Amino acid sequence: MSTDFITFTFQQIRISLAEATYDAGLTRNPETIPMSTARRFRAQVKQLAIILRRLIMLMALSLALEPVKPRQRPASETEDEPVVTKAQIPFSIALSGQMQVYALCDPGCREGAGGASGPVSVAGLMRRFEALARILRHPEKYALRVARVMERSRRAGAPRPVCAPIETYRLKPELGAAAAGLPMLLAEAFSRWDNSS
Q: Where are the beta strands (DSSP E) in 28-152?
């Protein structure tokens, strides 16, 4: 697979994310934005996340995985001690199709309220932006993770994933063309799903 297509699509996703952030007025660091603007931004980020997920899967399918070395526990670690993490990721995009739920319990975040109107706090929107930006900074790392998850699924006998086309009429022409080509490229890459050992 040519890396030119992947590089071009990543560049177009970055440009579209920056434009969506600017159009929503999030670059001016407001406390709140109108509900209609927040809905438009969420829809744009959701569509970019779908394209990014597919692009990461395409990268993952082209990787040759080395056998994973088993991890050894340090002698000081026991079964009774809880695992303490530095910080919990506030928002996550499920790149491999496996859902992970994170609590967005920010008291100023109103995005979960059904039928709400009026201004919307930008805190939740910025978490969505940062989730995409985090993946765009180091896509190779995420592609390796997705490759391992998909390899485990394939070895467990999971059926080959299907990638349906998405609506591209709201996207810029360059990104729309790349997004329209991703299902075909993924179908070709997944054709080796059943035949590989």
A: 32-33, 120-121
> E-strand spans in 26-161?
32-33, 120-121
- With a pLDDT cut of 90, the percent of the chain lying above it is 41
Buried b (16+ CB within 10 A) or exposed e, 32-68: ebeeebbebbbebbebbbebbbbbbbbbbbeeeeeee
Separation in Å, CA 65 to CA 89, 138, 142, 190: 26, 18, 14, 16
The model's pLDDT over 97-152, given as tens digits with 9 standing for 90+, comes to 554 444 445 444 445 445 556 788 888 899 999 999 999 999 999 999 999 988 88
In 3D space, the residue among 186, 113, 194 whose CA is nearest the CA of residue 146 turns out to be 186
CA 132 to CA 17: how far, in whole Å?
8
